[in-house]
Structure formats: C-alpha cells, structure tokens
C-alpha cells in the first residue's frame, strides 16, 4: 500500500476487517507510514472541552451520564452565561489549547438558544481560538446561524455501527445523525464525527463504525475515537473492558481509512497508561482533549499531559497557518504545553 493513499468512500466491511486482522506490527507500520505522509507525526492538536449546558437530557444514550433518566449524580444546569464561557476559553488558551469545544446536553437546540450560543462562539473566536460546538441535532438554518457566528467545527458522532446503534440509543435514528451531518457540511462548517468503542460491540461492529465514517460523502475533518467512560447509573456501567491492543488497532484502522483527518484520542485517556497513549500516537492519533475535565467526567490534568508530551518528544500542533499568523500568542501556546521558554 503506498503511504500517500487516495481518499476512498467505498470501503467494504471485509476490507476494513482485513485491516483489523493484520498482525499488530504490520498494522502499526502501515498506519504510521500513512500518518507521516500527511502530517508531522510529532505534532498533536490540542482541544479543550467545556460543558456549557449540563445534564437533564431527554435522550436515552446508554453510555451517557447526562441523560435525565439515569441516576448518575450529574447536576443539571441551565445554559451558561457568555462571560463565564469566555473566561473558561481564556484559561484554556493560556494553558495551551488551540481549539475550544462547547458541549450542551440537548437533543437539539431550541431556536431561542441560538443567539446566546452564537455570542459565545463569536467571543471565543475573537480570542484567537478555533471554535467547535456539539449541541445535538441541528436544522439547516441553525447550522448556518452557527457558521455565521464564526463556528469552525461541529461535533456530531455516529457513535457506533448502524447495526449496533439500536442497542445503545432509542430516542433518535442513525438517519437523524446523517441528516444533521449533511446540514453541517452544507453550511460550510468543518465536521468532527466519530464514535465510542468498548460498549460491548464486536470487532465487526467496530469495523462497521469506521466503515460508516469513511464512507460519508466527505471524510470528517476530525474523528474522535472515544473509549467508553463507564459511569455508575448508566446502562453500560459494568460492560467488559476492551482489550487495549484492540483499541490501538481501532485507532490505526481509523488512520488508514481517513488519512487526511485529525484522529482524536478522546474520552477514556484518564485511565490509559502513558505507554498505551504512546502506541495510539504511533498508530496515527494526532489530537487530544486537554484539561482536567471532558464534559462531566475526568481527563488527565495538564501537568500529566505536559509530562507525556515531553517524554515522547511531541509538540502541540499550531493553528492553521492563516490563523497562526493572526495569532501573536502562538509561541506562548507552544511554551505553555512544552514548558519551554516562549
Ligand atoms: N448532546 C449532544 C449529542 O449527543 O450530540 C452533544 C454532547 S454528547 C455528550 C457528545 C458525545 O460524547 C456523544 O456523541 C458520545 O460520543 C460522547 N460521550 C458521551 N458520554 C460518553 C462516555 N461515557 N464515554 C465516552 N464517550 C461519551
Ligand atoms: C466526543 O466525541 N467526545 C467528547 C466530545 N466529543 C464532546 C465528549 C466525551 C464525553 C465523555 C463523558 C463526559 O465527560 O460526560
Ligand atoms: Fe443527551 Fe448527548 Fe448524552 Fe445523548 S449523548 S444523552 S443526546 S447529552
């Protein structure tokens, strides 16, 4: 297989499974070769998450601590004030993040929520951060309004394979997700779309998730691969843990199928060893969530990630060239994470 591979949207399940079935060293070698053909493998993109509206969600996603129907101890809150969000974004930037992702525990936003979310986006963007939001299903007009406010990315996951989806979520269909992703693309937003593994799915179903992602009309710009964070009170608490090497294989196959996308090592890092994370970076992961909290659950603290970057010789990926030029803090961002003098 040549390292620089053409982008394909016609993967069959058998082809994807054949990649999963490769001997581990061969799979990693191929994924690492494709990774370095498209990216500097020493660079990792750094995003920080903030839950701008937590809990009380009417959906029934079996993994999620924010669904109102499960007793997980998550306290429901109203939509945060714009000034509070901007302060958090400022802190994230000072700590070294280049992208700020605002998440809301909604099935979909109400039209009346959009002006406030648009104000958050505009003010976070004005700090020189890339902006991302994940608010549930979007109509075409909502997607356009967010784009007009300065949104760069919209996160909306497929979550799992089409044939396993019905065991995880009953309150919305796979087709609804594809529809929202179409609205997001048509509005000219970049897509962030991935899923969760370790929910009790089979290897064939993990392959099915990656096949569905790669066969979207355009590869997502970012592909978050989450390892289930098991939260007491959710139906998936107590699920058998995924073999760590199988998780690395999933990252490697994601890199092979979507060579030009950012592959994000997402939820689940808090309980991963440095060695496991290093294998994920070798397999082609080149993005992380950074900061001690995801939405409601924990993430490694900044000091641990700074030490990990230093141990592995990794550096934060600068924002896209044009934005970087306009961003006088780029050197500071690098220094904040590596600990070097700016
Ligand atoms: N409510 C919106 C939605 O569902 O699209 C946005 C927020 S929702 C929390 C975003 C994504 O977080 C989900 O699609 C899922 O992939 C991920 N997620 C939620 N709970 C998780 C968990 N316990 N472990 C891993 N990923 C999780
Ligand atoms: C994504 O794929 N993972 C992030 C982000 N997109 C929004 C969310 C992970 C959430 C983990 C559970 C929690 O902290 O509530
Ligand atoms: Fe609600 Fe999103 Fe959690 Fe599903 S994943 S319960 S839609 S917050």
Task: Explain the overall architecture.
- This protein is an alpha/beta fold and 342 residues long.
- 40% of the residues lie in helices and 13% in strands.
- It has 13 helices and ten strands.
- Strands 1, 2, 3, 4, 5, 6, 7, 8, 9 and 10 form a ten-stranded parallel sheet that branches.
- Helix 1 packs across helix 8.
- It is globular, with a radius of gyration of 19 Å.
- The C terminus is likely disordered.
- S-adenosylmethionine (SAM) binds next to loops.
- The total of helices stands at 13
Helix content: 40-55%
Euclidean distance between termini CA atoms: 41 Å
Largest sheet: 10 strands, parallel
Point out poorly predicted stretches.
321-342
Mean pLDDT: 93
Strand content: 5-15%
Which class best fits the helix and strand makeup? alpha/beta
DSSP strand tally: 10
Order of helices and strands: HHEHEHEHEHHEEHEHEHEHEHH
Judging from the principal axes of the Cα atoms, what is the shape?
Answer: globular
Ligand identities: S-adenosylmethionine, 6-(5-methyl-2-OXO-imidazolidin-4-yl)-hexanoic acid, iron/sulfur cluster
Rg from alpha-carbon coordinates: 19 Å
